[in-house]
Amino acid sequence: MENNSIATHISKEETVDLLRRMIQVKTVNEPGDEKPLAELLAKEMASFGMEVEVTDLGNNRANVTGILKGTGEKKALLFNGHLDTVPPGDVEWKYDPYSGHVEDGKIYGRGSADMKGGIAGMIMAAKAIKLAGVELKGDLIISGVAGEEIDSIGAFDFLNKGGLKDVEAIVIGEPSNSEINVAEKGALWVEITTYGHTAHGAFPHKGKNAIVYMNALMNQLLQYQYTYEENELVGSPTMNLSTINGGVKTNVVPDKCTITIDMRTVPGMVHDDIINDFKKIIEVLQGEIEGFAAEIKITNNRPAVETDASHPFIKTAQEVVKEEFGRTVEAKGVNFYTDAAVFLPATNLPAIFYGPGSSDMAHQPNEHISIDSLMEATQFYAALAEKFLSVKPVHANLA
């Protein structure tokens, strides 16, 4: 990039305005309601010449895809983000969570950091590339998907309809404190229910206590040892016994007890192995405890994923940070998951997630993002697209 020529076409006013308008479209999941936002972004991308498509997923939900066409000499670069947000919560906010309020160099609102800011930056980076008259050798694809906060319905739809067919690398715009992340833990959420037989609390010997059964099971689970190799970037797996619910009244022997478990796994671990181990624990208890009965339900299953830090795409991203901002950044990892858990196992593509704002702001009251971080991320996206897609100036004008 000569003298940041593309960067000069990035408008702070337009970028902030786009993010504010995105925040003002309520996309709380559940139910999601991402379609109005998808349509807003389609209109925005079409306004400067991107090829756009809104994919209706039903129930006022949708994905949006924009393509800045290249010459076809190279495979595409995908910029991806999710359109949905979590609810604002019960804590009172300083400003309306859907106002996009701007104060002291910050933009407030649900989704500002997680992760409408990243999508806004990606779109404005594409616009700057178009305005600069730069010709890409490969397509730049921007994908906004529904449902990442719960079931990744949009990511799975994008994948299953061939969205990654001609893609060479992926950037996910989750908030990263302007760091380059290449690894993330997986999530395995399990619901286990034990069953007993109800009886009057005065005659407990006539019943079978599901809570007592669950106590025996939890004692075994707390002793469970994972099979794994510690990961340099994300460390070791964890297990959290998250909720427990059992019994209906003090004077009734409970016939049902349910717990939920949140496990965070590291790359290389196989979730099916863990599930099978849990089933074996239940089988052993069935043989040891008369009347013991339990069943397992999997409520979330996202594998841990990682791109080798030595991959050329990762090195390119690090070079861009150095060239644009004078910083040396090391590849890092995080303890949570993104839609990379959908994309990478199916494709083995290299991926980073890099976005404006702090991940500490995600799901928090008074969520906000600094305008400086938003603009820096936008510049990074533009420079990375230029460098990775081997662009060359053609002195074209915006159509």
TrEMBL record:
One of its GO terms (molecular function) is metal ion binding. Its EC number is 3.5.1.18. The keyword Zinc applies. Pathway: Amino-acid biosynthesis; L-lysine biosynthesis via DAP pathway; LL-2,6-diaminopimelate from (S)-tetrahydrodipicolinate (succinylase route): step 3/3. InterPro entries: ArgE/DapE, ArgE/DapE_CS, Bact_exopeptidase_dim_dom, Peptidase_M20, Peptidase_M20_dimer, Peptidase_M20A. It comes from the Bacteria. Its cofactor is Co(2+); Zn(2+). One of its GO terms (biological process) is lysine biosynthetic process via diaminopimelate. It catalyses: N-succinyl-(2S,6S)-2,6-diaminopimelate + H2O = (2S,6S)-2,6-diaminopimelate + succinate. Residues 182-286 form the Peptidase M20 dimerisation domain. Keywords: Cobalt, Hydrolase, Metal-binding, Zinc. It holds the Pfam family Peptidase_M20. Belongs to the peptidase M20A family. This is Probable succinyl-diaminopimelate desuccinylase. It comes from Bacillus benzoevorans. The lineage of its organism: Bacteria, Bacillati, Bacillota, Bacilli, Bacillales.
